[in-house]
């Protein structure tokens, strides 16, 4: 029994493997572009950094092998006999690998997220019937649907997308559905929202997507260099009632495995089951601005109409925050009833802890001063 995992050395994949190895899942083969020794060492280092128990680390040494492969190439860039041997040994596939860079070149994202998915599905098609297939997608395949309830079974690209990443993941899901229909094989599609760490990310652990946003705030602070000055208002385009769904990666990993176990018996042939791995409560933009004001007292962030006379930092934000700004218009929510029906006891995540996200990258250098609650502006 071998579980094959793509993206096992990435942010989500590392947490997923940590949870897998705490359960009796048998042998695990992690596909990586790195040579096997280097990939295995990196994985062990990440698990140690995350504080994995000794039993998990021992299981990683004994039961996890790494296979040098490239999902961007047909046949995963493996010799034919090695590809066949991997397929023959596989009883379960977790496709977690993806390029999550929001501002990446669309062609690059398509190669990684769409072509990569097709190439991995070819491995699953070569495996024995009944091999379980789990595809890690994203709740953001909903694209530019900024309001309303997104159902777990929805897959509609008619509203367009906020960025090429969302579009590539949408087309990957379409490819999964087409493959399932053509082959008669069932797939479990898992759609997490924005995944955040459970706590401060230690050195040696993979970085997360919000790290780049908080690093940009650190750059703004470094440019400001006016200790003791009154906070400068930075007007960002967006709806003052915007909200974003963020879910802890540790909870998401456990929920994925619990749901997968409950889905272990193959459903009807050609069935695609989609689950939203989202938090039951959205995080409001206002809450984020309050946290930013506490940790970055040089600025006061607001949401409203795009400023007609942007100051230096508003121009900075318009340029460097551009991949994130569209989400400041979102007020949608996600259905998760199907997920809850598969979790033991309706397991729920705790409230997201966002304080450390700012504190980790923005250590206070100057004396803090009281900052007013973020101003709320009327949208156009």
Give a short synopsis of this structure.
The protein has 380 residues and is α/β, with parallel strands linked by helices. 39% of the residues lie in helices and 17% in strands. InterPro entries: FAR_NAD-bd, Lipid_A_modif_metabolic_enz, NAD(P)-bd_dom_sf.
Task: Draw up the topology in text.
Layout lengths: L1 E5 L4 H11 L5 E6 L3 H14 L4 H10 E5 L11 H10 E6 L10 H21 L5 E5 L12 E2 L13 H20 L3 E6 L1 E3 L13 H15 L7 E6 L5 E2 L1 E3 H14 L9 E6 L5 E2 H11 L3 E6 L7 H9 L12 E2 L2 H6 L12 H7 L19
Parallel strand pairs: 1-2, 1-4, 2-3, 4-5, 5-7, 6-15, 7-12, 8-11, 9-14
Antiparallel strand pairs: 10-13
Pfam families: NAD_binding_4 (PF07993)
Protein name: Thioester reductase (TE) domain-containing protein
